[in-house]
Amino acid sequence: MLEHVLNGLYYGSILFMIASGMTIIFGVLGILNLAHGELYALGAFSAFSIIGFVAGQVAAPTGPVTAIVFGVVVLAGSLATAAVLLPVGGALEAAFIRPIYDRDEVYQLLLTYGLLLVLTDVMKFVWGPSPVDLGVFGGINEIPTTELVGIDYPSYNVFVILIGIAVFAWLVWFFDRTKTGRIVRATAINREMSTAIGISTDRMFTLVFAIGAFFAGFGGAMVSIGPGSASLGMGLDWLVLSFVVIVIGGLGSLNGAFVGSMLVGVSSRVVTPYYPQLELAVPFLLMVLVLLLKPEGLYGAWGEIQ
Amino acid sequence: MSRFLVDRDGETHLRLAEGMELTKNQAVLAAVGLVALLIVPDITRFTPLSFTAIHRGILFGLAAVGLNLLLRHTELVSFGHAAFFGVGAYAAAVLASQFDVSSGLLMLLGSVLAATAISVLIGYFVAGYLDIYFALLTLAFNQVLYAFVLQSGYFNYSDGLNVRPDGLNPPALFGLQLSSTGYELVLYYLTVVVLVVSLLVMWKLVNSPFGRALDAIGQNRTRARFVGIPVEKYVWVAFVISGIYGGLAGGLFALLQLHVSPEPTLYAFVSGEILFMAILGGFGTLVGPVIGGVVLVYLLVQAPFYIEYYNALTGLMLLAVVLFLPEGILGSIPKIGTGLSRRRRDPGLLREDVATIGSSLRRGVSRAATTVRIIVFGVN
Amino acid sequence: MTTEPLAGTESNGIDRRTLLKTVGGSALAVALAGCTELLEGEQESAADADVPDEPIESGLQTFTEGAPSVLGIQAEYGAETAVRRINENGGIAGREMNLDVVEEGGAYLTNYQQFVDEGKDVTFGPISSSGHAEMVPEIEAQEVINVSTDGTVTTLYEEDFPDVTYSFRFQNHDVMEALAAVNQAVEVLGADSIDTYAGINPNYAFGQDEMNLFSQGIEKLTGAEQVYSGFPDLGTSDMSTHITEINGEAPDVVFSSCWGGDATLLLEQGHANDMFDNTELLVGTVLYGSANDMEEDLVDGPIYSGSRNFYWGEPSTDRWSPAADLVDEVQSEYGVVPTAHFMSGYGAVTAWATAAEKAVSLLGRWPEQEELAMVLENHGFFTPAGYHTMGSDHQGYSNAHFGELTWSDEHDAAALQDVNVFAAKNVSPPPGEISSDWIGSW
Q: What InterPro entries does the record point to (chain A) (predicted)?
């Protein structure tokens, strides 16, 4: 049972890295970004190139020490990958999203769907139509973690869970404790007021979109260094699941996205062995349940960052 | 003036029934459209255009017409219309493969009944919600259905069901067991009849007091409630009507494809496509969604045969619609029409158009470049 | 002639006439069998037949992008290679062949219809089993021959469409690889040591079909008991739940029909979660389909994989030059080693092309679809994989391959060793019989 829960937390952590971006983008910009899954996929593909390069500079791990070195290099590569998504996200926001803030939400959906399709083909152009696999998963698992406390569980999963928590902590810190974060929240609550006191809302919106892209890209890098591979269309299922998560948690709520991700992750993993036919349906049943009982979501934020 | 021609604001209108009138231009367009619909089978025989793709596009367009009742009038964005389309398609398939029903029309009846039932149920839960919550809730119900069908042996999992009562041949239409080509042709004209009747019904409906009440609900629910409109009940009814259109389209789709599986009928992205068809064709119009359906389906089905980057082609077209043709294809025709005639008089305007598009692209690029510069180098 | 086809080709022990007779009598058949060097100076046999000049138009639908393209692109390479060899050898009865390729995902019916609208003489594909099931009645209605590359669910021709005319399938169907897996497991562990088994299979008709047949076979041969059967979603991103369950149950044998990205995911997560310490043996029918996407560390452990009707190293390439030539050609042309799905494409084209040529020489003119379909029934032909027949049930029958997963430094890809070759009659019922009845009668 413990392992099933850990499996769920691992799955939930990846989900959170994607869903957190969606929820803050919705919370601040008011846009439901259908292209968010493609930013995640872009992260996975970029990780293949970037981490593939940096990991190639160090020797494959042979013992615990070299494994740790290897792990640090891979982590640095993941951060570099995510950093690439910052300007990409910013440029997408500035060029495409900015002109449509005042339009009906159907146009926002249509535009981001158009971006989804275009981004898919950009990745097809750059990395080709077939899946690509980074192949550092085995090396990361050489790093001793759970063996130290006498259980047997893949180190990679442990790292992903820890990183998921770290990302959550950083986001909370950023929005709660930093000046910029508070300004972003103020902008989300009242755009006119913020403009009046001299805040460039354009800047803030770009920043938020870029941060969202950063974490989606980071999530993609996590998947790429994991057991899976980067492939076209990999973003679609995660996109739909991210909807589920942010609705369960409350649109725009960071805490909600975190709890929602873990809830979806753990419940689907724990239920699967006993009721295999529910594997796919569990997240959606949860979502319907939450919407009917508490329509504003568990942390009912109604479009403000909390 | 005769019974069918009336004079309004100095213009002659063609009057079909109470509240259903067309201007001269609209009447001409409608007639052209109808003729075009009728000769599609002949056109496709002599051109490389694909008959099935157009037929399929019309069906999705019909579903989008239903969705547009919610989108245009109550201003509710449904992201779950594939639920009705899929249920309609599956109803026909279940009747054919599990109950040996051989009549296509009976299957269609089944589709409508099943879609009604499911939209009554979902509508009951969602009618009170607004905005993005309405969209996400409809999406959730849609995905629950999808997951349920995908896991169910009765619906044969992801493989789906054949719509061939005897295992090999298409169902009978009007009591006739037709050959493959004959079947396709008869089914097409059945589709055209269904489409035209559905459009007329929708037209009548939106011009009825009920339709006006929906408009009032769309503009301001509180005010609508204040003037005595039972808002939730009316939205529920509109939702069911809209679902019936989806189910009917789905049933016809089952008869056309003769095979129904979850992904092309029930997946959340099919819902998205139905929604985007309405916008693409022009959701401010009655017929726009049909045109959007034909165009989008045609792109999705045919583009892979001609270019490698077919997703990007569709994507760029959608971006262009959002940025340059917000009223959609049909909705922009009047504007394009006047624009064209003005440009015929003054060709200089054309240069301005190019300049406008050019500068808007340039602005986009420069915004993007500035942003990248700021993010990368941190300079203002 | 099944396990060591044409073993004497290198030793000059076989003369040209015998060879031609063996492979079907025509230069084209020899070329597609991969033995062109034996043909120097041979006359074109069907040259005086009355055939049209214009090239043959054909269409292939396959997975060209995304996760399933791991298999789909191999099939595309295979079909392209066959077409290239056909054209380099003067075409089919003098007619050149063109091949259009289109993405199959979600568009099986419309693709086939579009191909027919475009006037294709023949269509190939798809990979997807559900797509294939969807297409069969349409193929029968449109009456343009389709030779499916895969879409291998056993019940398709046994139960759903027992009487078809224009729809064919080249690749071995599921029962053959599932029973090859049973035999392989029994051979490795011994029937007495197999008491429990489990399965992880993709959640759709193919995965269920394979698991079902494997269960029947292994229970019949060993009396083993099923302790777990999981069906992760096709193209899933996480199988850890199922692997955790396997670790808990510690079955003697784990069976899997996961393919493409699912196969590598299973191996990656299996290793990371020490699954191979908790089971004696993993037999996977299509694991080797991902040979070009595996890292060296993945092939460690008691892992055996099927390779459908073709494994490039069997018979050994130093004894069987057609396979050696093919591996060289594929490596230089595409930079990969050919897998069974390469043969799916190659063999589907070859089946049709050799039958078409046979029909021309029988009729003295180009055949109608119906005539060609009749020739294809019970048609036998060679590829570098050996000898194949197209059964009267329209199912292709060839040897089934199964071996231990290992690593080839020479090709920098996964390889198989100690490959077992199972003749079709040992792992599948005769045409017309239902597989599960047949297994029941063992």
A: ABC_transp_permease (IPR001851), BCAA_transport_permease (IPR052157)
Q: Where are the alpha helices (DSSP H) in C281-410?
A: 321-334, 340-363, 369-376
Work out the average pLDDT over A222-239. Answer: 92
Looking at the domain assignment, is residue A253 inside a domain?
A: no
Q: Where are the domains of chain C?
A: 9-172+316-397, 175-307+400-440
The reply to whether A254 falls in a domain is no
Residue type, C363: L
Dihedral Cα B75, B79, B83, B88, nearest 10 deg: 50
Average pLDDT over residues B25-31: 83
The verdict on a CB contact (< 8 Å) between C245 and A138 is: no
Residue A192 pLDDT level (bands cut at 50, 70, 90): confident
Please report whether residue A281 resides in a domain: no
Which among A227, A237, A280 has CB closest to C269?
A: A227
The ipTM is: 0.90
CA distance B63 to chain A (A): 17
Strands B11-17 and B5-8: antiparallel
Cβ-defined contact of A138 to C295 (cutoff 8 Å) = yes
A259-282 pLDDT tens trace: 999 999 999 999 988 887 787 888
Mean pLDDT of C329-334: 93
Work out whether the CA dihedral A45, A49, A52, A54 comes out positive or negative.
negative
- Residues 103-132 of chain B with CB under 8 A from chain A are 125, 129, 131-132
Asked if C237 and A269 count as a contact pair (C-beta separation under 8 A), the reply is no
Mutate to test the interface with B, among C103, C112, C114 (most CBs of B within 10 A): C114
Q: Cβ–Cβ contacts within 10 Å for residue C384, how many?
A: 28
Contacts of B71 in chain A (CB under 8 A): 106
Is the pLDDT at C280 greater than 60? The verdict is yes
Q: Which of B251, B254, B299, B255 is nearest to B273 (CA)?
A: B299
Among the four given CATH numbers 3.40.50.720, 3.40.50.2300, 3.90.870.10, 3.40.50.620, the one describing domain C9-172+316-397: 3.40.50.2300
Hey, which chains touch A, using 3+ CB pairs under 8 Å? B, C
Task: Give the residue from chain B lying closest to A118, CA to CA.
Answer: B312
**Separation of alpha carbons A93 and A166, rounded Å:** 26
pLDDT at C2 over 60: no
How many domains does chain A divide into? 1
Q: Which helix (H) or strand (E) holds C386?
A: strand C386-390
**Cα–Cα distance between B278 and B155 in angstroms, integer?**
30
